[in-house]
Amino acid sequence: MCGVFGIANHPEAANLTYLGLHALQHRGQESAGVVTSEGGTLHAVRKMGLVADVFSKEQLASLRGSVGIGHVRYSTAGGSLPKNVQPLTAEYRHGAVALAHNGNLVNAELLRTKLEAEGAIFSSNSDTEVILQLMARCNETTLAGRLAWALERVQGAYSLVMTSEDRLLVARDPHGFRPLILGRMRTSPHAYVVASETCAFDLIEAERIRDIEPGEVLTIDGAQLVSQHLPPAPPRFCVFEHVYFARPDSRLNDEGVYDLRVRMGAKLAQESPVEADMVIPVPDSGVVAALGYARESGIPFELGLIRNHYVGRTFIEPKDSIRNFGVKLKLNPVPGLLKGKRVIVVDDSIVRGTTSRKIVKMIRDAGAREVHVRISSPPVKSPCFYGIDTPTRAELIAHSHSPAEIARYITADSAAYLSSKGLAEAVREGPERRFCDACFTGDYPIPFDPPTHRRQLRLVEF
Ligand code: SF4
């Protein structure tokens, strides 16, 4: 999970990119970076840390130029290392280029092995660098042509922004796994922006024009916008963006994320009702679905768990005696509210089950009489290979346990999930509007099968 941002034709490109990254901070907290283009020169500031900590006023002032790209990172491929902080920059025979990418390339390892065998030297272990290495081998005469040529040889999920020679290039993989939206500044109509989510537009007062289409490679060169398209594939937008990743105030696929989450909660209430005194969310991930559940069921919505928003990462290894420390740092129950009550607690998903178990214990310790867990998505049974950090199949509790067994493990009185049908109805899935739901179904739009990829690799010429 990462966030990308880009802007063209604006004298405040660096400052606006910096603000855009603030709005996208929920998509990645490990590192942040901005690169601007000033003629043939690129200026870069990139570091590990949160956006607010990475950039000083002086550094932002050094980012000259009217085109900017930015990235916030949560590592999925490559390690959490300074050398992998994006945007990546490179010099090749056509000049300087910078690239930032959200998603995972499923054939990056194989392409990298082949490129290294041919003498390529990599400066990071991020899969994004494979795209730059491929571009360097391409004889197409235009930048967009070289990018499209490279993208035809990679497989997986990518929404990317690139800059070189004062141009902004953006692209989305043919399945359109990750979001990428085009907008323009209200005050300067020739200043175009792109972002992973529309919440970044709201902050800088830009208006949404449209989504970048799956498979589209768009070049913004001054006031000119030129699109080309990669070979098409069935659209498969990541349904988990709607379930959890995106901010509820964003619009994805021109749908308000908030509304879809309310519908998920309402469907969950229809499918898995239970008598209770209150509905409480696990903040922040379960808040909107819990509202939907409460409205549909008529059971009062309460804030029974309070989240500490100021906790970052902690580096203390909890000993057994304080093993709930991690969850307690973030969440604290309201005992006066919960004491003696039958509580429905709503969250977006259960991954390993360990956090849910601690939360249920916390609510019981605060005096709740019954705790019923309701999850606003189907059970997560399979890992994601398209840019989301999920554990292995064996670590996913729903892979090997039924909802009743999970309820026992997390010590809840009952546990129930939204059905696949309920989720499909909530996000209005249809023949023209298909989603990736592989982490629930195991039905991968791009198979992640190394032997298959080896066979495919032999067909890749570069
Ligand atoms: S596997 Fe799950 S998280 Fe990954 S892209 Fe598909 S729906 Fe999204």
- Hetero compounds: iron/sulfur cluster
Q: What structural category characterises the helix and strand content?
A: alpha+beta
Whole-Å distance between the termini?
Answer: 29 Å
- Overall, the morphology is globular
Tally of domains: 2
Number of strands: 23
Tell me which oligomeric state these chains represent.
single chain
What is the fourth-level CATH superfamily of the largest domain? Answer: Aminohydrolase, N-terminal nucleophile (Ntn) domain
Q: Provide the residue-averaged pLDDT.
A: 92
Individual helix count: 18
Tell me what the structure shows.
The chain has 462 residues and is of the alpha+beta class. The protein folds into two domains: 3-236, Glutamine Phosphoribosylpyrophosphate, subunit 1, domain 1, CATH 3.60.20.10; 259-428, 3-Layer(aba) Sandwich (Rossmann fold), CATH 3.40.50. 31% of the residues lie in helices and 25% in strands. The chain contains 18 helices and 23 strands. The strands form six sheets. A seven-stranded antiparallel sheet has the order 3-2-4-1-10-9-11. It has a six-stranded antiparallel sheet with strand order 5-6-7-8-12-13, with helices on one face. Strands 17-20-21-22 form a four-stranded parallel sheet, with helices on both faces. β15 (251-252) and β16 (255-256) form a beta hairpin. The longest helix has 15 residues, at 257-271. The protein starts with a strand and ends with a helix. The structure holds iron/sulfur cluster. Iron/sulfur cluster is lined by residues 177, 238-240, 384, 386, 388, 436-439.
